Amino acid sequence: MQLEQQRQALPVTGCKKRLLEEIHKTDTLLIMGETGSGKTTQIPQFLLEAGFGKKGMIAVTQPRRVAAITIAKRVAQEQQCQLGELVGYTVRFEDCTTPKTRLRFMTDGFLLRDSLADSLLRNYSVIMLDEAHERTVSTDVLFGVVKMAQRKRKLLNLDPLKVIVTSATMDIDHFGQYFGVKGMYLEGRTHPVRVMHAKESQSDYLHATLVTLFEIHRNTPSNHDVLIFLTGQEEIEAMAQQIRQIAKTNLSSIAGVRVFPLYAQLPQNKQLECFLPAPPNARKIVLATNIAETSVTIPGIRCVIDAGFVKRRIYSPATGLDILRVVRISQAQAWQRCGRAGRDAPGTCYRTYTEQEMKSFEKMPTPEILRSNLCSTVLQLLALGFDCKRFEFLDKPPAEALDAAYKKLESLGAIQNVAPKPTITVLGRKMNRFPIDPQYSKLLLTASQFGCMEEMLSLVAVLSSENIYVSSVEKREQAALAHAKFHSKHGDHLTLLNVFSAFLKTEKIKLWCHDNFLNTRNLSYARDVRKQLLDIAEHLNLPINSCGDNFDQVRKCLLMGLFDNIAELQRDNFYLTITGRQRAKIHPSSVFHGKYRPEYIIFSEIVLTEKNFLRQVTEISPEWVAEVVPNFAHLSRIKVST
Ligand code: ADP
Ligand code: MG
């Protein structure tokens, strides 16, 4: 009953009739509306109730897997069905649907993969590309893919494919021109939000955020919930701990606080907690990444604290490296964040940056496709038969980024004849069968030659999952001791492999994970991923062999895919990446941190914040480079000691 009332009260409900009329009339619809107006949860249900799910499923894409899952749960609740029956979701490595499913939430990445199996997307009658303003690479590419599918279905006299593009309040003209249709605006209902800027520039935004929070806590009624925007898991967990600590020691006389982190890697049941109301006399404080910016709406928020930063994956074709970097948000994002305070009632937004500083933020975020590594995308488009240089991109990626992707794919053996016309190789097609980055599928496709298929399946599975270690502030030393048991002297990849192998042999996993400060959910997820990777490997007839204790084979095999991630120790104890010449140190979470410094290492990723860090590193021997990737060794001028 209450759910139904909430649904009726959403702004989008008033437009239901008009929406359905429009979608019957035209094949493509652009809808723009305030965040929280009900686009994501309601429009798919209107379609379902109008019978659109009968001939094919209704697909709704989300840029983030967390959003796809939480929204599917919510909608299943509203439809009063078991999740996975009428309403389900599919994200990479996780499928919660049945043949009964008519409404399927999914990541944009999954739909893109699905189009590889059928470029006409015949399983679907309607595709709603949601959160289009986020401009992820997958959504951007899907624009072109669905447009082509619509055209082909028309030519073949098949049922039309209806496409709905939904977006928060941004740049709809651009989409309109691309699809050749006009946009529809939904009336939003938001309350005024008072904006407070920092008076002077803050050198420590985390400190500024904490101070602001406790000022709010002292001076506003306890039912005004607070949403704080931070950049990622580590930052959020550290601040959550600090807030709880301060509240425990200093606030006995005022109302209590309930702190809820919200980020992608958080276990699902924890993610849902922040949607529940806080107990009376306690204030709900949600610490979130930009997931709370537009994709999910948390009820009760009256205050927003915006630190003004976001973590972005940035690819530089010049250096050939993918980099995680904490950067300033755009002005459009700042206004989105601000709006989150005015969903239920008038609110306040506190910005820990000055008004002047905000003027220097870029107006709109740069679409991801203009700043990403395009290897997977290019490979997928080639498999779909598209020539990337002629593909109808909403915004065309720079030629140098496409060229860099071609070059990398060629060096991985996935494509050939880059000039004049790149074609996908047999190996490239096989690489596409794995739903992972081409570098990693290359590892799996060559692992049997190194005799280490079992090990590589495990390693890639663990690398595909989120952090398997549990950190504990109170029991830091105990956790470190527990983790040390698994340490490999060769580095972090083999350490991960040790943990995972032990996990696979364990029966009472919950207890074992608890005792060893390991994350049961992420390890179980890795186990499922491994099973799926194994299935694909068996389909491809790859020999499933094991190298036993001869872990050098695993380390050599890593070079097959990650040769661009080699770094060399410098005299000042920094490392220099061979490709791209970036200076960085080994991340504190590494087994090498503060101890032995190997001369040559291979790393999983490079993170640039105030300091540059290489995450997950393994020692390699320079001789191997010439042996395993001779072409690269030739180019890289690695010193080989004799
Ligand atoms: P939009 O897509 O337009 O941003 P949504 O359809 O996501 O809007 O959300 C509509 C409303 O549904 C929101 O105001 C929010 O309060 C509510 N809502 C969505 N998901 C949940 C959930 N898991 N729990 C409680 N309320 C939710
Ligand atoms: Mg939405």
Task: Report what the structure shows.
The chain is of the alpha/beta class and 642 residues long. Among the domains are: 1-186, Rossmann fold; 193-366, Rossmann fold (3-Layer(aba) Sandwich); 563-629, no CATH class. It has 25 helices and 23 strands. The strands form 4 sheets. It has an 8-stranded mixed sheet, with helices on both faces. A hairpin with a 2-residue loop joins β3 and β4. The mean pLDDT is 91. Bound molecules: adenosine-5'-diphosphate and magnesium ion. One of its GO terms (cellular component) is nucleolus. One of its GO terms (molecular function) is RNA helicase activity.
Q: How helix-rich are the residues, as a percent range?
A: 40-55%
The set of bound ligands, ions and cofactors reads: adenosine-5'-diphosphate, magnesium ion
Which consecutive residue ranges, at least 5 long each, have pLDDT under 50?
none
Q: Strand fraction band?
A: 15-25%
* Strand neighbour order, sheet with most strands: 4-3-5-2-6-7-1-8
Mean pLDDT: 91
Give the beta-strand count.
23
Given the C-alpha coordinates, what overall shape results? globular
CATH architecture of the domain at 1-186: 3-Layer(aba) Sandwich
- CATH homologous superfamily label of the domain at 1-186: P-loop containing nucleotide triphosphate hydrolases
How many strands, what sense, and barrel or not for the largest sheet?
A: 8 strands, mixed
As a whole number of angstroms, the C-alpha radius of gyration is 25 Å
Q: Look at the helices and sheets and give the structural class.
A: alpha/beta
CATH level 3 topology of the domain at 1-186: Rossmann fold
Head-to-tail CA distance between termini: 77 Å
Q: In DSSP terms, counting alpha (H) and pi (I) runs of 4 or more, how many helices?
A: 25
What's the CATH class of the domain at 1-186, please?
Alpha Beta
Protein name: RNA helicase
Keywords: ATP-binding, Helicase, Hydrolase, Nucleotide-binding
InterPro entries: DEAD-box_helicase_OB_fold, DEAD/DEAH_box_helicase_dom, DNA/RNA_helicase_DEAH_CS, Helicase-assoc_dom, Helicase_ATP-bd, Helicase_C-like, P-loop_NTPase
Enzyme class: hydrolase
